[in-house]
């Protein structure tokens, strides 16, 4: 007998006959689980939600910058220059004008790149899929302006551009609604961190040690 | 569960040794108090916490009640998304499957994301026996692995080590596993983390096989979820060509929407953060992004036996947040090693004896590794009534009864060591039923206070060896009441 048959047989014996309403247990699911918890905590306008995102990102030691469409290219160029970035990874769908004035050499996100190739790149610039204000979280879903999961992981410096207010939601429940589970998702709340040594928080173990978030309006 | 730490003494002996270790107690006290205070603040930010907790409990209960259906739905969804599902009835079968999958890649080393399930089945040892080296990549797991040590906490496995001890381990051991510790390494957390980054990065960059567990599996979509902080999880989940995830069958939830509950309650309960730094979700494989082959190994290993116990079943709701460890007065003093299992603390005290049965001395002692103060139930984000299960398991140890082992109903005999306890309880029942005898006994006890021993003789020693005997008052309460309130005022 296969492990599958053994386990399913054990479960059925453990549970006994199913209750009457269980022809399709999923049909009774929504009544079995109370969903009376909040969709979001507190009521805020768009601006206040963006402010809360900025505050919570900063609380987890992400560096937050704000600009509008006119200032974006210049700001990105400045952030890369300030770190001495010579090479910058660019996802295939990142709008070209974002990096129009940056001096760094653009490295396209290619499948042929090995992890070691990525390790030699200084910075990466991406867009994002959605940002969660209450938790200070950015979510990447692998869309063309964000690229493969590994490009935001191996380089030490990640700059993530969030379009405000349309990419910002207040809460985790509202974020999940917007996301497609068939895509690989990466949720990022601040830079890589550990609390394994005496529960002292240290930024930067394996992922990017510096996370910069650009909140851009009017794009 | 094969994860019994070999030669582990029963909880009372192990705890006595641990309680005498002043460094251990100081490390633990610092860590648990820090995190429990932070957790309380993180939870207080959400004014619907009680409702989230209730929803989490109901989601898990519903899933467990229909577990076979949700696992089949999950299998279908994972397969449709390009993954392969394997079923492992016990630790040996899981280890065989994973070892074969690794060997089929032709690789002789793997990188691992911290995972309770693979700890539980002793996967690293099984791989080592087959000539495959498994590298732990979570900083705390690395400290444990380099230190030839055992984990002592679910979330922070090296919680029992302080920075000085960690520096000594890194200096002595890193070179034997790969890149040595930097010259002149100090004991600041930042430098220690940097040493780990350099040591592990060379392993990540060349790894072709990754092994993980998962925090959640979504039946409707086939999505797996790993919640972490350091990025080592992301490294192992996305850089290798082959990913093997070993996950307990109880980790399934029905719908994508269910994550809205657990992604709020888990980070706040475990690391006391609004959200952990990294969460990865993946559904089968994705073209040119991440591993090309994905294997999911669904693990039973005592979980279906636990499911068969209607009181004990609630332990399977556990989302491994470890909040119960951090508030437990027993854990804080005894440390995680005393529990003789990869699952320490209050949850370990109910999970291990159910997964493994109560045949061994350590497992029979675990239901007693608690003061039943209830703090663990209070903080549990899925409302597991740990004290209720502890009492239930104590009854089973003492009285015996029907249990399920490896899917078969068996009758458990009363534990031998508890004959004296049963006799004492029978005697107590008689005495409390005879007020005259009780009164005479109490007066006699009060008058002989001066000559009472500090430990009980004979079979009573088993009881008094782990407790201070309560002092007998100078006057029985009933006499005092009668004297101060008068004969007629008693209720």
Helix/strand-derived category of chain B reads: alpha/beta
Estimate the helix proportion of chain B, in percent. Answer: 40-55%
Broad CATH class of the largest domain in chain A: Alpha Beta
What pattern of helices and strands is seen along the backbone of chain A?
Answer: HHHEHEEHEEEEEHEEEE
The tally of domains of chain B stands at 3
Question: What is the arithmetic mean of pLDDT of chain A?
Answer: 94
Low-confidence stretches of chain B are none
DSSP helix count of chain A? 6
Largest interface: A-B, 74 and 100 residues
| Ends distance of chain A | 60 Å
The chain-level mean pLDDT of chain B equals 92
Distance between the ends of chain B:
53 Å
Q: How many helices of chain B?
A: 23
Please tell me the CATH architecture of the largest domain in chain A by its name: 3-Layer(aba) Sandwich
Task: Write a concise keyword list for the protein shown above.
heterodimer, A: 219 residues, alpha/beta, Rossmann fold, 2 domains, B: 491 residues, Fumarate Reductase Iron-sulfur Protein, Chain B, domain 2, six-stranded parallel β-sheet, four-stranded mixed β-sheet, 23 helices, iron-sulfur (chain B), L-lactate dehydrogenase complex protein LldF (chain B), repeat (chain B), metal ion binding (chain B)
Topology:
The complex is a heterodimer of chains A (219) and B (491).
Chain A: H1 3-15, H2 29-32, H3 46-59, E1 63-68, H4 69-82, E2 87-90, E3 105-108, H5 115-119, E4 123-126, E5 130-132, E6 137-140, E7 157-164, E8 168-169, H6 172-178, E9 185-188, E10 193-194, E11 202-203, E12 210-217
Parallel strand pairs in A: 1-12, 2-3, 2-4, 4-7, 5-8, 7-12
Antiparallel strand pairs in A: 5-6, 6-9, 10-11
Chain B: H1 11-19, H2 22-44, H3 49-65, H4 67-80, E1 84-88, H5 91-105, E2 109-112, H6 116-120, H7 123-129, E3 133-136, H8 139-146, H9 163-177, H10 189-206, E4 209-212, E5 216-218, E6 223-228, H11 232-238, E7 242-248, E8 252-253, H12 259-270, E9 278-283, E10 293-299, H13 303-307, H14 323-327, H15 329-334, H16 345-356, H17 361-365, H18 375-379, H19 386-399, E11 401-405, E12 408-412, H20 419-432, H21 435-447, H22 461-464, H23 477-485
Parallel strand pairs in B: 1-10, 2-3, 2-4, 4-7, 5-8, 7-10
Antiparallel strand pairs in B: 5-6, 6-9, 11-12
Helix pairs in contact in B: 2-12, 3-12, 9-10, 16-19
């Amino acid at each position: 007998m296969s492990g599958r048959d053994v386990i399913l047989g054990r479960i059925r014996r453990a549970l006994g006959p199913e209750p009457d309403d269980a022809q399709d247990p999923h049909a009774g699911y929504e009544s079995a689980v109370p969903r009376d918890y909040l969709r979001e905590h507190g009521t805020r306008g768009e601006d206040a939600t963006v402010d809360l995102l900025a505050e919570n990102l900063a609380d987890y030691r992400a560096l937050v910058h704000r600009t509008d469409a006119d200032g974006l290219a210049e700001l990105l160029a400045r952030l890369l220059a300030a770190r001495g970035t010579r090479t910058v990874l660019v996802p295939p769908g990142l709008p070209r004008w974002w990096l129009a004035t940056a001096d760094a050499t653009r490295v396209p996100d290619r499948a042929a790149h090995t992890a070691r190739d990525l390790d030699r790149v200084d910075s990466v610039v991406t867009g994002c899929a959605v940002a969660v204000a209450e938790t200070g979280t950015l979510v990447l879903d692998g869309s063309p302006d964000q690229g493969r999961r590994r490009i935001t992981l191996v380089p030490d410096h990640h700059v993530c551009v969030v379009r405000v207010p349309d990419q910002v939601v207040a809460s985790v429940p509202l974020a999940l609604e917007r996301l497609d589970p068939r895509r690989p998702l990466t949720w990022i709340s601040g830079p890589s961190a550990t609390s394994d040594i005496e529960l002292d928080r240290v930024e930067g173990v394996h992922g990017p040690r510096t996370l910069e978030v650009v909140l851009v309006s009017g794009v | 569960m094969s994860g019994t730490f070999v030669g582990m003494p029963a909880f009372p002996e192990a705890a006595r040794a641990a309680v005498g270790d002043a460094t251990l107690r100081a490390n633990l006290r610092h860590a648990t108090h820090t995190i429990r205070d932070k957790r309380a603040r993180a939870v207080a930010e959400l004014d619907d916490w009680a409702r989230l907790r209730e929803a989490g409990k109901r989601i898990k209960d519903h899933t467990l009640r229909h577990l076979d259906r949700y696992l089949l739905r999950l299998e279908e969804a994972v397969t449709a998304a390009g993954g392969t599902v394997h079923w492992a009835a016990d630790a040996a079968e899981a280890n065989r499957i994973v070892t074969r999958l690794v060997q089929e890649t032709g690789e002789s080393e793997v990188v691992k994301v911290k995972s309770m399930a693979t700890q539980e089945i002793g996967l690293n040892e099984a791989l080592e026996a087959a000539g495959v080296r498994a590298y732990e990549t979570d900083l705390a797991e690395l400290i444990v692995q380099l230190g030839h040590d055992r984990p002592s906490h679910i979330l922070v496995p090296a919680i029992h080590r302080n920075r000085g001890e960690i520096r000594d381990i890194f200096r002595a051991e890193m070179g034997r596993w790969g890149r040595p510790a930097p010259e002149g390494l100090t004991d600041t957390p930042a430098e220690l983390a940097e040493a780990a980054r350099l040591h592990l990065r060379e392993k990540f960059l060349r790894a072709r096989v990754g092994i993980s567990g998962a925090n959640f599996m979504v039946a409707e979509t086939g999505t797996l979820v790993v919640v972490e902080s350091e990025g080592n999880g992301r490294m192992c989940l996305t850089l290798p060509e082959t990913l093997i995830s070993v996950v307990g069958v109880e980790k399934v939830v029905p719908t994508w929407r269910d994550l809205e509950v657990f992604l709020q309650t888990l980070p706040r309960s475990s690391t006391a953060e609004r959200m952990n730094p990294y969460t990865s979700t993946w559904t089968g494989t994705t073209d040119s992004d991440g591993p090309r082959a994905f294997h999911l190994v669904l693990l039973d290993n005592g979980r279906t036996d636990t499911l068969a116990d209607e009181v004990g079943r609630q332990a399977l709701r556990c989302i491994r947040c470890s909040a119960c460890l951090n508030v437990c007065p027993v854990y804080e003093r005894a440390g995680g090693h005393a529990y003789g299992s990869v699952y320490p603390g209050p949850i370990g005290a109910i999970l291990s004896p159910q997964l493994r049965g109560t045949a061994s001395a350590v497992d029979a002692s675990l239901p007693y590794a608690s003061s039943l103060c209830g703090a663990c139930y209070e903080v549990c984000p899925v409302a597991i009534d740990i004290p209720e299960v502890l009492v239930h398991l104590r009854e089973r140890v003492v009285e015996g009864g029907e249990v399920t082992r490896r899917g078969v109903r068996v009758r458990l005999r009363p534990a031998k060591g508890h004959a004296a306890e049963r006799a004492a309880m029978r005697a107590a029942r008689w005495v409390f039923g005879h007020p005259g005898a009780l009164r005479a006994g109490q007066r006699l006890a009060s008058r002989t206070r001066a000559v009472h021993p500090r430990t009980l003789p004979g079979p009573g020693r088993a009881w008094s060896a782990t407790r201070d005997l309560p002092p007998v008052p100078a006057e029985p309460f009933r006499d005092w009441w009668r004297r101060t309130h008068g004969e007629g005022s008693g209720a």
